[in-house]
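RETRY 2/3 - previous attempt timed out on the joint model. Re-submitting the same 519-residue input unchanged.
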Amino acid sequence: MTQTPLVRLQDISISIDGQVLLERIQIDINPGEIITVIGPNGAGKSTLAKLILGLIKPTSGLLVRQPGLRVGYVPQKFHVDPSLPMTVKRFLQLADNAANWQQALARVDVSQLANQPLSTLSGGEMQRVLLARAIQIQPQLLVLDEPAQGVDVTGQAEFYQLIRSLRDELKCGTLLISHDLHLVMAATDQVLCLNRHVCCAGHPETVSNDPAFIHLFGNQAARSLAVYHHHHDHHHHTDGTIAEGSECTKHSHA
Amino acid sequence: MLEILLPALLGGIGLALITGPLGCFVVWRRMSYFGDTLAHSALLGVVLGLILEINTTLGIVIGCALMALLLGFMQSQRQIATDTLLGILAHSSLSLGLVALSFMPRLQIDLMGYLFGDLLALTFTDVGWIFAGVIAVLLALHRLWRALLLTTLHEELAAVEGINTQKTRICLMLMMSLVIALAMKVVGVLLVTSLLIIPAATARFYANTPERMAMLAAMVGVIAVLTGLSMSWWQDTPTGPSVVMSAFFMFLVSFIYRQWHQPAH
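RETRY 2/3 succeeded.
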């Protein structure tokens, strides 16, 4: 893709108290592209997300963001103290673009939650509400930090499917942080395998065969991933009714 | 009689109007111990006011703000947990304040008044101070409402949405310092926090939005001031504790009511 990236990270390193959190990171996030960042615990995934969100500054290197970039953010944890009475509706009305809260909620299929208090939502419901909130501002860049934690497998698959379709609609660049290999791999355009530095990057199939990836996640993970992808392709050809099936066509788009 | 009662009424009501909404943030952000520590350091502010020969209320605001900053600074280390720090600072600053006060000329110091408040000793000058503070805090709350709510919900999300969370937090602390300085006259150092959290906690039982909770908390506070003051006037009970008792009574009734009816979310 030869377009101006939404965010460009050039040779970025971050260290805090002499400890290196990220080292010489090089990433372009382009409009309409889903990049998934995977890596073990402590690999600096959340640090990378915070960096791209502008919450922390790099120690060295250059971070260029498109001026006036609209960023939607789905945080990793969102605990609401039960002492704070806040309905979903009121929460969405606190956003910059408060007027379209109903559309946003309907788009992620949770209109029925409008009058529910935030503190009573389940993990999956909260995830959708946060996504609704993130798309309210018609983001050019969507950043999701381990959004599917505590959601069952079916729910996760549906969620990633939703992210793909939102990407198609909004043409937004998407950065997805995850450590859940299987489901994410099916939903992404680019995979970036992070362990303080970028171990390997590329298309899901390429990455799963990369020695660095196999080293990081072990043979079995890599194998099951490959199996998953083949399995997945077949499903697409023989049975189009499975939700994730449609993703296979998009794998070839680059 | 009106000369004593009117300033007390006006001052008490004015104060309840801001302790209610501000108290909601204390409850939502779990800052009640923090508020308590600020209140305990208020006595140091009194000393500061006497030494610098400035208005006592101003002295307390400065003292509380310094304490808030000190606390923020000390929290950046990780060996000692925040609640331990709060406990250390609360009681040390109270002791330091009491010791320092003992060196002061005694003529103008009503220690019991500082510790438990004396609403009926309010003057019209005090009322003027309180209303200046009330207007300042209400304006600030109105202006910062969205920023404060979002920062309370999720700091990083708020920051991504362009809110200066650092500034918002400092404003909240300054508002708390101001309210504590003003509320000290009414309920005293030892009871200030109760005026912040009891009305807010009572309001929680009936509210389904943060705005409604803030308004209800202000109302509960006003009622507590009115009943407490009446009790003190007719039965000659200590004013500060009477106000707190009235607030507690409303909390208790609401609590029991909610045990029987389905809890509000």
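Chain A has one domain: 30-53+74-251. Closing ticket.
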